[in-house]
Amino acid sequence: MEALPLADRLKSDANEVSESVPLTWVRCRACELVYVRELVEPSVLFPPDYPYFTGVSSALTKHFRELADTVIERYELTEDSFILDIGSNDGTALKRFKEKGISVLGIDPTTWPALRALKDGIPTLREFWNYKTSGIVRAELGRPIDVILSNNVISHVADPSDYIRGLANVCDENTVVVAEFPYLKSIIENTAFDIIFHQHVSYFTLKSFGSLISTHGFHLNDAEVLNVHGGNLRVYFSKKEGGSSRLKKLQSEETYESELNTLRSFVKRIDETKADTLQLIDNLIAEGKTIMGYGAAGKATMLIEYFELDKTRISGMFDKNPVKQGRYFPAFGHFIHSPEILKDPDQRPDFLIILAWTLKDEIMKELEFFHRDGGKFIIILPELIVV
């Protein structure tokens, strides 16, 4: 794209101009990694007033609670164990461990989410993770780390090699790293192009990720594909060599995800979906219907901007995160309302586009009253449907 507004940079003034940066998706011929060429300073992408809070979503809260239970059982963790969570946000993923009496530490550079974590009793170091930070943690911790969590972080960093080098610096032979990130294979299968924005720098396959960690002495030992975020990959790796039948099966299923022809076909499907979506929306507007969006997520920036969902097509947005309400979305400056308005027959729209489509089940359940009273949902991805 010639320019895309920076995601999660919500505005307080309608006249404030959103900061936009070109975005080019490229592929490395040598390692097959697909990534965004234009890099933005991390302090700009993740400012002190970063508005994303994991705990706002009941589905994600459940997801990370189940992850904790899986890790505790799989690695037989006890009250003597220690968990490090890199990119811990508001501490949602660490709460279950803490409930079990397991010692935890979160690492996160943002202010608002980190303060929420501290308020909830989750020790949190406000730093970006890199090799330098790993040295601080190693020097101050004074004890081995049993499990390191890294959920939706590795894809965000401009230098993934330095990130993994930092992990290697704090891991001993018994430390296990459990990481999640957007999976290129799932992105392509679900036409989930909205995950592509400046915060998400790298888009891994098992092959490209395995190649990255092997240069720092790690072995990829297991992996699974998740439904969360439209198709995340969860990987398990350590300095000990291992393997699983599940990992081997997934590796055998990877074929041409990073090949140029596959990527070109992916872009063609995006444009076809755009044409179908705009035809539906423009027909509804011609019929006098009103349309708004739900879910002021970072990924909605790409969806709204690329599909040209300006103020002539949607008249505003909703989000249940109070931090986002009353502010203006970076793409086309849509005002973000409280969902409470949807309870007012005189103010609610006829149709809601679920922009945060990976949480569509949670959203439709919460807005059952809207649907019951005649409102309809438009879900664009992974396929265009009206409910």
Characterise this structure.
The chain is of the alpha/beta class and 387 residues long. Helix content is 33%, strand content 18%. It contains 13 helices and 18 strands. It has helices spanning 42-45, 58-74, 92-99, 112-119, 131-141, 160-170, 184-189, 206-214, 245-253, 260-286, 300-306, 360-366, 368-372; strands at residues 4-5, 20-21, 25-27, 34-36, 82-86, 103-107, 124-125, 147-151, 176-182, 202-203, 219-225, 232-238, 291-294, 317-318, 336-337, 351-354, 376-379, 385-386. It has a seven-stranded mixed β-sheet with strand order 7-6-5-8-9-12-11, with helices on both faces. It has a six-stranded mixed β-sheet with strand order 15-14-13-16-17-18. A hairpin with a 5-residue loop joins strand 17 and strand 18 (385-386). It is globular and about 65 Å long.
